[in-house]
Amino acid sequence: GATAVSAVLKSSSGRQRSAPGSPALRPVVIDANGVSDAAASVLHTAIAAVQGGNAIPAQQFACVRQPKDKQRKSYKNENRYLAPNPLSVQYTGPSPQPGVTVDVLLTTDEGVPLAFARQVELVGERSQRLDDDGVAQFSLKMHDTSRGEYIRLCFVARFDDASRPSEFFLTDRFRVDTNIRKASVKEKYTAEQRIKQGFTATF
To answer: Among 142, 45, 130, 143, which Cα is nearest to 92's?
Structure first.
């Protein structure tokens, strides 16, 4: 499960309201227009925190509903979001709720962050503040497939109090495929036979 993978990783090295008293969040967005400097900086920082052991397995955060195991690529003219949409992270720690920003990364099935060139295939607002209810919501799309492999999302929670280490957790695994259905061998064979036998469509 995600908890076990988190342990392995540690050992291996909708819009929301801002939480009360927290600084306003400038959305960190990756979209069809490219990657902003702010988004690139946040992603690199989150990757470094997870890979370098500066983030610890989450103790105060959980995924409300896990991603479905089969997802579809969203073409640039589509709004096909990862399901369920939105994906929500819930603060489960004690009151009062701290100020927290949650970032999201793509990882391998084993929990290793994917290279930056792959990270930008996950499109949407990649950083969200916890709202007044302790929830951060993410509406995300994949602009490419997972190349036939299973991947995961890694949520990294950054506290406004810099003395507290970031916390991270992995979702359940899923794969992303194209939504273009490939013809089966049987369908191809039938079509070829119809052509050979001289069948033509009548209108």
So the answer is: 130
